[in-house]
Amino acid sequence: MEKLTLTVNGKKVSAEVQPRTHLADFLREQVVLTGTHIGCEHGVCGACTLLIDGQPARSCITFAIACEGADVTTIEGLDDDEVMVQLRTAFSREHALQCGYCTPGMLAMARDIVRRLPNADEQRIRLELSGNLCRCTGYVGIVGAIRSVLEARKGTAAVPLPEKLGPVGSQGLASETVTADVKHEPKPIPPEAFAPTKIAPGPDLPMGKPATVINQSFTVHRPRPEVWAQFGDIASTATCMPGAKLSKPPEGGHVEAEIRIKFGPIVAQFQGELDVERDDAQFRGVAHGRGRDDRQGALVRAEVTYALAEVEGGAATRVDVTVGFTLAGPLAQFSRSGLVNDFASRLTAEFARNLEARMAGGSEAILPAEELSTVSLFFSVVWGRVKRLFARS
Amino acid sequence: MKPGPFDYARPATVERAAALLAGSGFAKLLSGGQSLGPMLNLRLARPDLLVDLTHIASLKEIRETKDFLEIGACVTHANIEDGLVPDCTNGMLPSVASNIAYRAVRNRGTIGGSLSHADPAADWVSTLTVLDAEIVIRGAKGQRRVPMANYMLGTFEVALEEGEFLEAVRVPRFSKSARWGYYKFCRKAGEFAEAIGAVVRDPERGVCRAVMGATHSTPILVADATALIGQGFDAAAAGALLDRHEITDAYERQLHVEALRRATVQAGA
Known about the structure:
The complex is a heterodimer of chains A (393) and B (269). Mean pLDDT of chain A is 85; it is low at 180-187, 192-206 and 363-393. Helix content of chain A is 30%, strand content 27%. Chain A is α+β, with helices and mostly antiparallel strands. Chain A has a seven-stranded antiparallel β-sheet with strand order 7-13-12-11-10-9-8. Chain A has helices at 23-30, 82-93, 103-116, 122-128, 140-152, 224-232, 234-238, 337-361, 369-392, and strands at residues 2-8, 11-17, 49-52, 55-58, 71-73, 177-178, 212-220, 244-251, 254-263, 266-279, 284-293, 298-311, 316-328. The longest helix of chain A is centred in the last third of the chain and has 25 residues, at 337-361. With 269 residues, chain B is an alpha+beta fold. Chain B has three domains: 7-52, Uridine Diphospho-n-acetylenolpyruvylglucosamine Reductase, domain 2; 57-172, Uridine Diphospho-n-acetylenolpyruvylglucosamine Reductase, domain 3 (2-Layer Sandwich); 179-266, Enolase-like, domain 1. Chain B has eleven helices and 14 strands. Chain B has helices spanning 14-22, 36-41, 77-81, 92-97, 103-106, 111-117, 123-130, 148-151, 226-229, 235-244, 250-266; strands spanning 7-10, 27-30, 49-52, 62-64, 68-72, 134-139, 142-147, 152-154, 157-158, 165-172, 179-186, 193-202, 207-213, 220-222. In chain B, the strands form four sheets. Chain B has a five-stranded antiparallel β-sheet with strand order 4-5-10-6-7. Chain B has a four-stranded antiparallel β-sheet with strand order 11-12-13-14. In chain B, strands 1-3-2 form a three-stranded parallel β-sheet, with helices on one face. In chain B, α10 crosses α11 (250-266). Chain B is globular, with a radius of gyration of 18 Å. β6 (177-178) of chain A pairs antiparallel with β1 of chain B, so a sheet runs across the interface.
C-alpha cells in the first residue's frame, strides 16, 4: 500500500492505495463517491469519465497513484457548476437518460463540449461524444440536450484551455516515488482453479473446433527426406521454435516443453506437453499440444499439422503448417486477429530460419535452447524487416 | 477486470528512469496509460514494475530549431490538438491529433507512449513515418537517434534496447508551400483505424512521401512517392505495393488504396 494525496471535489484526500487500483475504484471504494460509474473498464465506454485537473479523462484506465497531487472532480462535485445546472435541466427535459448508467460520463463530456466548443453543430457534438456509449435511450435526446444548452449560451466565449503540457493528473508534483523496493511476489494460481478444463494426461484430449486457425508455409533448401528426418528429431526441431525449450528429454512422440512468447506488453510462458504422430508414407505429421501459464492464468490447446512437399525438382522442401489453437483465460480477450496472424508469421519465419541453420550446420552447430529463446525474438523482427526491405526494392 | 499486482515507480529525472528500467525484472514504462491501461486491466500485460514517466518535467517540454521541432515524449495528443505545441507542419500535427480516439483519452494519451506501444493502427505511427521524424532514445548510456522508419520493427515491437525509452520526437519543419493529406477509415469515430493514407509533398525540401498505414504490421512507406502520386494517384502502383507486402484481402486492399487516394487528393496531387 502506498500513500496518496490528491484533491477530490475541492477537499484534500489522503489514503493508502495499491499501485494497481485505478482512479474509479479508488473514488468509489475508498472515498465512497459512487457517482462515477464503471462500465467496460478498459477505456471504451466512457461511463467512468470525470474531470482531472479540470479536463475530462477516463478514470478506469488512470491509476490513482499516478494522480498524486492532482485535482479530481467527480459528478458529485459539479452540483453547483453553472454549465452542469443547465445540462441537468436539459437532460431531464429532452429524455437524455433512462437507466442513468452512462449519464455521469455523458455529463462530464457534455460539459466539456459546451465549454470548449461553443459553436459546435450537431455533427461535431456527435463526434465529440463518440467515446461515450449509451445503451438505452440512444443519442437523440442526449445530443438534443447539449444543443439546447449551447443555444441558450449563444455568444459565450470558449473557456480557456489548459496551458501546461503533459497528461492531466501529472502536474501535481515533481518529487520521486518508488514503491519497487518491496517486490510483490505474484502468487501462482492453484491448479484447482482450472478444474473444469484441467489438462488431462495422454494424447486423447478432445480438441473440439479450434478458435483460431493459422496457415503458414515456408521453404527449406534441403531435400525432403532430410527435412523429414529433421522433423523426426523432435527435441531438435521443437527448440527451433523461438522461445521454446524442452522440460525433459522426449519419450517417443511425447514431449514436455515450455515456450515463452513476448508480443509487446503481452508476455506468456506456457508449460505443456506435445504428442506427435507421423505418417512416413505421406510425409505428414500431426501434433496435439496442451499448455498452461500459471501467471497469466491461461490455458492453450493446439493442433499442429505439417506436410512436406518437394519443390525445385526435389532440391528443396515446402513445409505447409496449419496451427489451430484455443486459448482460455485473459489472453483469449485479445481479439485483433490480423495482428495475431502477423505475429504468427514472424514466429514461423524465425522457426524456418532456425531450422535451416540447424540443418546446415549438422548436430554440432545446434544452438543451446536458452540462447535461441533470448535472441530469437530480436531476430524474428529484424528478419521480417529485412524481408520487407527486399520486397520494397 | 482489475490489473494484477505490480510495483510502481515515479522517477523525477530521465537518468533515474533509465536506472530503474535497467535494474528490474519485467518493467513497463507508463506514460498516459491509454493503451497500456486497458491491457493491464484485461490482464493481457502482467509486468512486475511500472515506471511512470509523466512526472519528469523534461519529457513535457518542446524545443524548436530552424530545422525541426522537438516534442517531449509525455506531451499529449490534446496538447498538440490545442495548439500548445507550435506547429511546423502547416496544420498536419494538430489535425491528426484532434482525431485520435476521444478527447477524454487525448487528455492523458501521449505521443511518446503511442509510438512506444507501436500499435500499427495508431495515428502517430503513420504520421511520423510520413513526416520522416526522428526518434530520440534515452538509455543508461545516454542518447541516440533513429529515423521513425527504423524505429518500429513490427506490431508492438520497437528498436528500444533493454533499459531504453523514447525521450522525444523531432519533426522536420515544412516549407511554406508544403502540402499534406491524411485519411483514415474507422468503423466508428475514435476506434482503431482499419486503413490510413498519409501524404507529404514539399517540393522546396525535395520531399514527396506516402504511407499506407494501419496494416497488420509496420506502415508501408514510399520514401520517394513521385511516381505513385506525382502525376495524380496511381492506384495500380498502390495495389502493387500491397502485393509486395502480402496484403491479399480484397476488403483491406480496397480500404488501403482508397485511404491513400483520398490523402493524395487532399495534398493537392
